[in-house]
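Deliverable D5.2: sample structural annotation.
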Amino acid sequence: MTKFDEATAAIRVDETMYDVCLDPGYSIGGPINGGYLMAVLLRAVVDASPHEHPVTTSVQFLRAARPGPARVRVEQIKTGRTATMARATLLQDDAAYIEALVTTATLTGAEPRWTDGPSVTMPPVEECVRLPDPRPESGMTLNAQMEMAFDPPTIGWLTGEPTGRPEARAHFRMAEPQDPDPYVLALAVDALPPVVFSAGERGWAPTVDLTWHLRALPAPGWLTLIGSGRLIGDGWFDEDVEVWDSAGRLVAQSRQLARVGRG
């Protein structure tokens, strides 16, 4: 079991309730990363389902969860031969922090009948760059949990040279050696810096709603994350992310709506 497996573990209490402990190692300056929180929820949902994989997840982030003990309540909505639908709620002090609707199914790993390619061609890992380590006082502990190598133009905002377009692209893998699985993909779809940074915005950009789909079981190795946006306005922005595995297959895709950065 890896550190990530331990950090996302869900222990069954009864027919509907699971105990979890939210790890402070996945914080982004205080709040806990939404992808990590989704992985925690999905551990409980899959354990309660007759099916093995979370093929679609839609999450509403109601409040910023804090590290420490929490519970996940799972309510089955419909169970069928090929798919099960459930509602999952992350609770702290009996208050709901996240509400999610999740459909589970069992993927076979079969080759796709048809697929297109990535929307953008990424340079190889050795031609990409790492972000500098955050200062300890920043509380950005998430960075230590994963390795990311960025397409250089998409981090021009670091030196005051954003591209002017909402975009973010990087190669991704866990810092501790681990083959990617659906729970790692839940983290990956929310791992990029907000795409609005590249458009010239700054600050914490809280996600309000995020939906992602598991399209295939990933091959071992690096993942490629391609993030983009369509509209920034009225204090809101959208972010789409494609996740491609080392075999060149689309394994996950997501869309989220978030507030433009504050502070």
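Annotation notes: The domain at 3-106+121-259 is CATH 2.40.160.210 (Porin). Helices lie at 3-7, 34-47, 182-188.
The annotation will be released with the project's public dataset once the embargo ends.
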